[in-house]
Design goal:
alpha/beta, 2 domains, 12 helices, 13 strands, binds nicotinamide-adenine-dinucleotide
């Protein structure tokens, strides 16, 4: 089986955790790693992934080897292991566009090289590095930059995994262009490996399966990494609220009073994320059931678990001659796929695709 050559658009916290997960797998290809849902997916092990390049705009990252870029001050995800074979992958400059707006502009200074970078440079680099899959992990709300990367991948014939809630796979005109070009596009918005959305939607599915009538729900999320800093700006977080609402609707929550989204930045939490959720429902004889959840997770490793599946799903779909948005693996991997499913159906469709 060949390697999967991956490039990272955005060398931030999710990318750092994913690169470490790949390094652990490369060091022990036949070991079952905690949190790795599928040891092989479409025949690929996580150890078969090679990170061959990254793109960023931060002056503390651009021009450095990947392993050094992840020592930048804004990185708050835990370092569990050194990067192995991929430690020297280059971090290339990309056009800034709307990548650093709002609070991010106060913590990241754009590299001079990013000012000269063009979409054509990005497409050319994807071809030169023979990239199979581009993982887009840019700040939420950076819709122009995210669309620029999608267009560059389309030009280069590179499959895309969209970790962000900005609509690509869910935008019919974008997914049609990928389908017509014979290029795979998976998205949108990572559904973290064991995160708020998966727990919340599994709980909703359980209550509905027992015939309860949902009345109201909320899901409040706080954290202290740059993702939460960015999402604290109301001008940047709209797509995250929409994406979480899409996930709850796919779980069966229609016409219910529900709120779910990022709820604040608490700097000292760093990469720890807290989720507080409640579901209230009507049961037998109109009696009330109310369930509260508190979830504490490290945010970025939780994203890495999904990216580990998504890059292999994108390459597998490409190998199978699929193109555009691919339905089967997407509802388990993303909050806002074109067609969402309840958790158990999403898992069954994914495992069927993965085998
Ligand atoms: N568990 C999770 O962490 C999780 C779950 C679901 C979705 N997501 C989404 O994944 C995305 C990435 O999250 P993160 O925590 O890694 O964010 P981050 O802030 O750590 O990283 C974003 C990176 O993008 C870079 N960047 C900004 N503009 C750029 C441009 N024009 N070109 C190239 N790089 C640019 C930044 O410098 C930074 O390195 C976000 O949209 C987030 O909402 C994360």
């Amino acid at each position: 089986m060949k390697n999967i050559r991956v490039a990272l658009a955005g060398a931030g916290n999710c990318a750092w955790s994913f690169a470490q997960f790949v390094a652990l797998a490369q060091a022990a290809p036949d070991t079952r790693l905690p949190g790795l849902m599928c040891h092989t997916l479409g025949g690929y092990r996580l150890a078969d992934v090679r990170i061959v390049a990254a793109f960023d705009v931060d002056e503390a990252k651009v021009g450095l080897p990947l392993a050094e870029a992840f020592t930048a001050p804004v990185i708050s995800a835990t370092g569990f292991t050194d990067l192995g074979a991929d430690r020297d992958a280059p971090v290339l400059p990309a056009p800034v566009l709307d990548g650093l707006v709002g609070p991010l502009a106060s913590v990241v200074r754009p590299a001079a090289a990013a000012r000269d970078a063009t979409p054509e440079h990005v497409a050319k680099a994807l071809v030169e590095h023979e990239v199979d899959v581009l993982v887009i992990a840019l700040p939420t709300g950076a819709s122009r930059a995210i669309r620029m990367f999608a267009q560059a991948a389309l030009t280069a014939g590179t499959a895309v995994v969209n970790c962000t809630p900005e609509e690509l796979a869910r935008d019919a005109s974008v997914s049609r262009r990928f389908a017509e070009a014979g290029v795979v596009l998976l998205g949108d918005d990572l559904r973290s490996h064991l995160g708020a959305t998966c727990l919340h939607t599994a709980l909703i599915e359980l209550l509905l399966s027992r015939g309860l009538e949902l009345q109201s729900t909320y899901q409040l999320n706080v954290g202290g990494n740059t993702d939460f800093l960015n999402l604290a700006d109301a001008g940047r977080s709209a797509s995250k609220f929409t994406s979480k609402a899409n996930a709850l609707r796919a779980a069966g929550m229609s016409d219910v009073d529900g709120v779910a989204g990022p709820s604040g930045f608490i700097g000292h939490l760093a990469d720890t994320k807290l989720c507080f959720a409640n579901v209230t429902a009507k049961s037998v004889l109109g009696s009330q059931v109310s369930i509260d959840i508190k979830l504490t997770v490290e945010d970025s490793p939780n994203a890495a678990g999904v990216i580990a599946n998504a890059v292999r799903a994108a390459k597998t779909a490409t190998d199978r001659g699929l193109s555009g948005a691919v339905d089967a693996p997407s509802p388990l991997l993303f909050k806002s796929p074109p067609h969402g499913l309840p958790e158990s159906e999403a898992r069954a469709a994914f495992l069927d695709f993965a085998s």
